[in-house]
Each structure stands twice: as C-alpha cells, then as structure tokens.
Amino acid sequence: MSWLYLASVIGAGFCMGLVDHRWRLFLFRKSSYALVVLAVGFVFFLVWDVVAIRLEVYARGESPAMTGIEVARELPLEELFFIVFLTYVTGVLHGLFTMLLDRRAVAR
User: Fold this and answer.
1) Which residue in 53, 68, 72, 100 has the fewest CB atoms around it within 10 Å?
2) pTM for the complete prediction?
3) According to DSSP H, which parts of the chain are helical?
4) Where are the transmembrane segments (predicted)?
C-alpha cells in the first residue's frame, strides 16, 4: 500500500489553490458559486465513472503508487480526489482565461 498517488493529487490541488488565491481566479473569487460548480462537477464525473465501470469501460488499474483502497467496486479512493482536482483545475483555468481576455479587451 502506497499513498504516493493520493499525496500527489492532494499536493497538486494545494498548489492550484495557491495560484487561485494569488490571482483570485475561482474559489477565492466567488466562493459560493465555485463550491456549487465543484459539487456539480464532482457528481457529474462520479456518475460518469460509475456508469463506465458498470459498462466495463473502466477498470481499476494496479499501481504500486496507489493505496489499494476501493470506495466501490473498481473505484479507487484516489479517483474521488482526482475528480475534485479535475473540476477545480477546470474552474481555475476558466478564471485565468477570463481574466486574460478581460485584460486584453481593456487594453484595446
């Protein structure tokens, strides 16, 4: 059992949080809106994963970097954290591109 992958996802999320905090791109810009987006994204991708697992499109891979803990059949613990991370990164990138486009429009 290894916690390397889970720690990596959590660490990357923390770093993304620092970027978000510094430039107020998503969660630190409109926190109530961002939390709703994170919750909806989490539910959407979790349902996506469960459906794909049931259809046998996805299967849990074996890796020495993973904990080996499953929250459901073929659904590793790390996947829950990755879904949150994926949704958060998407929100931060949207905030970044919106900020850059707004600055470009003001400059014109």
Assistant:
1) 100
2) 0.93
3) 4-23, 31-54, 77-107
4) 6-23, 35-55, 80-101
